[in-house]
Design a protein that fits this description.
The protein is α+β, with helices and mostly antiparallel strands and 584 residues long. Helix content is 52%, strand content 11%. Strands 12-14-13-15-16-17 form a six-stranded mixed sheet, with helices on both faces. Strands 1-2-3-4-5 form a five-stranded antiparallel sheet. A four-stranded antiparallel sheet has the order 6-9-10-11. Strand 1 and strand 2 form a beta hairpin. Helix 17 runs antiparallel to helix 18 (397-411), helix 17 packs across helix 19 (415-447) and helix 21 packs parallel to helix 23 (494-508). The protein starts with a helix and ends with a helix. Bound molecules: zinc ion.
Length: 584
């Protein structure tokens, strides 16, 4: 376990407000701060950041995410506890004290990165070797030698064993080759074989410039699959990185171009636009959008002009908007993708295309017309109905009015009539939203939390336990007295019992209470549950008397077994709820 002094210093050096504000826009609300939750999609802020307490934390009343600054980084960056601590330490210029196990873990990662780097070098040399098919493929597609070098492109030939033989000769083990996802093991012969064969190789770099994975495109005419990518390894998480981000992040433009694949990215980069990225062999993810948000304000989506590309565009627009990026859409004529467009019309024309990119609203309004013939009355009505839904999505009144005028003019209808339609749609949605919110509350009451499933059938015991825990969070020096009143084995729900036991151990070892105490041994979901306990009871006064009343409930449950269960469950709940409502 990391020394508590270090964690304390780490959190002092990384105030939650400063860290969170590089991912979300925080707004002050009295003594608290609020933001749109980065962990679920929402339009009004329900994520609260408690900055005024000793133990800074955040909690989302919508999706129940919560915890301290370390939990936040684990969640948003998809990191393990140690990696999150490492990242925060780097941010503050601190060094993490390591124990033996931490060292082994770090060594293993270093070895894998070393293997990836060596493999990338091997593929790079192969591209220039006797078998010229990879180089010919790239030259046929007009990739310049400079750009091939810059991206460190490589080639995997026909042998099927050359990489594993070369790497083993360099001292890497079979296990390492399999873990790095570079080789597989044949079921029949038990021999290792190369995963990449007859492919142009695209090494994938992280922001620090380490090779973390590979993508390979087949050079054979009907080679399957067309693209083959590394799967998850200890140094590569899918959906977290973007191809070419190591170059794009250096661009000062606050604008990124989002392309569909490796070859497009390289074509656009070669044409002089370094600020281009692509998601890696998967559909765009929220994590990738948050990564872009750190470097840009605007993203120009330049996917293929076919139906699949256009559908992906719609999804990307929503994901980009959800993290506060301004999406724009490249409107390509006479070319199926940016690669072809640049070849046909040249880089200056592509620059014009970028400047003329449609805003997302125009794209969505235009899309309403696809598949319908707007010259007929029926077609026009169908398209207008879709346009009404798009207009109702615009939150800003003034913006909505501008687009409303445009659509009315475009379709040749009275603005007032269209406006009435949009208002009706908005009213319908508000009603629906209220119903949905109520349904969520009802569902939450029944399903509660997978973290502590026992709480559903033992509601009053769970509430009693959580009140006792909250008292301990506030008064850790009262531990002995609380333990005398209610021993851990009297706790009924498994998760609360675990929290109580763990807390007792840590406190009696002399640790001071903070949420971080749970960091290493509890998952972010579990820490969110613990955060909720104190957030829920925040305004409730808990004294010795409350604790002994709660202890009474638990002790009685143990003495009477399950008989006390339904005795005055409803009555107790009602009382408890009344107590909670008495907020100051
Ligand atoms: Zn949330």
């Amino acid at each position: 376990m990391l020394p508590q002094d270090f964690i304390y210093a780490l959190k002092q050096a990384n105030p939650i407000e400063g860290v969170m504000s590089s991912y979300v826009q925080l707004r002050r609300a009295g003594s608290l701060m609020k933001c749109l939750c980065p962990f679920h999609s929402e339009k009004t802020p329900s994520c609260v950041v408690y900055t005024d307490t000793q133990d800074q934390h955040f909690y989302c009343f919508g999706c129940h995410a919560g915890g301290d600054v370390i939990t936040f980084i684990m969640q948003i960056e998809g990191l393990s506890y140690m990696d999150a601590v490492q990242m925060l330490a780097e941010r503050a210029g601190m060094t993490v004290p390591r124990d033996a196990q931490g060292n082994r873990e770090a060594e293993r990662r270093t070895r894998l990165l070393e293997l990836n780097r060596t493999a990338a070098r091997f593929y790079y040399d192969q591209l220039r070797g006797q078998d010229k098919r990879g180089l010919v493929y790239l030259r046929d597609r007009a990739r310049s030698p400079q750009i091939i070098n810059k991206y460190g492109l490589g080639y995997a030939g026909d042998s099927g064993f050359s990489l594993c033989n070369a790497m083993i000769a360099k001292g890497f083990t079979e296990d390492e080759l399999i873990t790095a996802n570079l080789c597989g093991r044949s079921q029949k012969s038990g021999r290792l074989y190369d995963r990449f064969r007859n492919r142009v190789i695209f090494p994938i770099f992280d922001l620090r410039g380490s090779v973390i994975a590979f993508g390979g495109r087949t050079i054979e005419k009907d080679g399957e699959p067309k693209y083959l990518n590394s799967s998850v390894t200890p140094v590569f998480k899918k959906g977290h990185n973007l191809f070419s981000m190591q170059f794009a992040k250096k661009s000062q433009s606050k604008r990124l171009i989002l392309a569909e694949g490796y070859m497009d990215v390289i074509a656009i980069h070669q044409a002089g636009f370094e600020n281009v990225v692509a998601s890696l062999g998967t559909a765009l993810t929220p994590d990738q959008c948050r990564l872009m948000r750190q470097y840009a304000e605007e993203v120009v989506i330049s996917y293929d002009s076919d139906a699949a590309g256009q559908n992906a565009t719609v999804k990307a627009i929503n994901l980009l908007r959800a993290v506060g990026l301004r999406p724009r859409i490249l409107h390509m004529h006479d070319a199926k993708d940016p690669d072809e467009f640049i070849k046909k019309f040249g880089p200056p024309a592509f620059r014009v295309l970028l400047e003329d990119a449609d805003d997302a609203m125009t794209f969505e309004l235009e899309r309403c017309k696809t598949g319908t013939d707007t010259d007929t009355e029926d077609g026009k009505i169908a398209a207008l109905q879709m346009a009404v839904a798009v207009l109702a999505d615009i939150e800003n009144d003034m913006q909505r009015d501008i687009y409303l005028s445009r659509v009315a003019h475009d379709y040749g209808v009275e603005k007032e009539i269209l406006s009435a339609q949009v208002d009706a749609e908005l009213r319908k949605r508000r009603g629906g939203a209220k119903k949905q919110a109520w349904r969520n509350v009802q569902n939450a009451a029944v399903t509660r939390d997978p973290v502590n499933p026992d709480a559903v059938s033992h509601r009053r015991e769970a509430m009693a336990e959580e009140t006792i825990l909250c008292y301990l969070f506030r008064n850790p020096d009262m531990l002995e007295k609380v333990q005398e009143t209610v021993p851990p084995e009297h706790f009924v729900t498994a998760f609360n019992k675990r929290v109580y036991t763990y807390l007792s151990e840590q406190l009696s070892k002399g640790y001071t209470y903070s949420l971080s105490l749970f960091g290493e041994d509890f998952t972010p979901q579990e820490i969110a549950y613990i955060t909720r306990i104190s957030v829920d009871l925040e305004q409730v006064e808990i004294n010795d008397k409350t604790v002994s009343d709660c202890a009474e409930i638990l002790n009685a449950y143990q003495a009477d077994g399950k008989k006390a269960e339904d005795l005055d469950n409803t009555e107790f709940s009602a009382k408890f709820d009344a107590l909670r409502r008495k907020r100051t």
